[in-house]
Amino acid sequence: VQLVESGGGLGQVGGSLRLSCVASGFGSEDYAVGWFRQFPGKDREGVSCISMRDGGSYVRSSVKGRFTISMDSPKNTVYLQMDSLKPEDTAVYFCAARPGPYGDISIGVPMEDDYDYWGQGTQVTVSS
Questions:
Q1: What is the model's pLDDT at position 110?
Q2: Residue pLDDT, tens place only, 60-104
Q3: Ramachandran angles phi, psi of 15, nearest 5°
Q4: Which of 35, 60, 92, 105 is the most core-located residue (most Cβ within 10 A)?
Q5: How many whole angstroms separate alpha carbon 44 and alpha carbon 118?
Q6: Alpha helices, DSSP H only, in the chain?
Q7: Which residues contact 40 (CB under 8 A, 6 or more apart)?
Q8: Residues 26-31: contacts with CB within 8 Å, 24+ apart?
Q9: How far apart are alpha carbons 104 and 75 in whole angstroms?
Q10: Is the pLDDT of residue 128 over 90?
Q11: Cross-strand bridge partners of residue 113
Q12: Do 56 and 104 meet the contact criterion of CB atoms below 8 Å apart?
């Protein structure tokens, strides 16, 4: 399994960035993809997740209304649309995947320990 992120970079306060995560190596759609971010000197925190199986998703409350997760199943791609960027969104963003079976992905923030496969991370810097 391989996950490749793209779309990070420099964003402006109030602006937008869209991160992409392309997953390869899964033999079916029975997997979920999560987005995590890591601030300097901090542990990774779950941001959002989506089930490729049924489209169920979750976005953590601190970014809800600004971040949106979506997927393009035929392309095995998950997007994290980040709008109304704030300086505190500056972090390294990772996508990760967990194979099925899993429960209802929409019930809570993705937990790092539940995800088996990780991308390399992409830096997002929001400047004012």
A1: 96
A2: 999 999 999 999 999 999 999 999 999 999 999 999 999 999 999
A3: -90, -165
A4: 35
A5: 12
A6: none
A7: 91
A8: 26/1, 26/52, 26/76, 26/97, 26/99, 28/100, 29/53, 29/73, 30/99, 30/100, 30/101, 31/97, 31/98, 31/99, 31/100
A9: 23
A10: no
A11: none
A12: yes
* Residue 33 Rama label (left phi>0; alpha psi -120 to 50; beta): beta
pLDDT mean over 51-63 = 96
Residue that the structure tokens 């991160």 belong to: 19
Provide, rounded to the nearest whole percent, the portion of the chain with pLDDT above 90: 97
Q: Which residues contact 41 (CB under 8 A, 6 or more apart)?
A: none
The radius of gyration of the chain from alpha carbons, rounded to an integer in Å, stands at 14
Strand, helix or coil for residue 88: helix
Query: What sign for the dihedral angle of Cα 48, 5, 120, 50?
Result: positive
Could you report how far apart the first and last alpha carbons of the chain are, in Å? 37
Task: Find where tokens 């496969």 sit.
Answer: 117
